[in-house]
Write a structure and sequence with these properties.
The protein has 72 residues and is an alpha+beta fold. The chain is built from 2 helices and 3 strands, in the order βββαα. Strands 2-1-3 form a 3-stranded mixed β-sheet, with no helix packed on it. β1 and β2 form a beta hairpin.
């Protein structure tokens, strides 16, 4: 391998939006994330909608909340 072409592999502080903090190793010294293993629905069993730009509301408005609310 060539010498001095690889980035430095340093200890990294990871901070989640839920407040969970942990350390790992990465080429970056700090990482901020929105979802981690402490708050992800797959691991917690709780489901929450992450609504981006009102897409869920737009869908419900267009198609209704089930078969009885759907437009023909």
């Amino acid at each position: 391998m060539k010498a001095d072409i690889h980035p430095k592999y340093v200890e990294c502080a990871v901070t989640c939006a839920c407040g969970n903090k942990f350390t790992t190793y990465s080429v970056k010294s700090e990482i901020r994330t929105d979802i981690c293993a402490a708050c992800h629905p797959y691991f917690t069993g709780a489901q929450k909608f992450v609504d981006t730009a009102g897409r869920v509301d737009k869908f419900l408005k267009r198609y209704g909340k089930g078969k009885e609310g759907a437009k023909a």
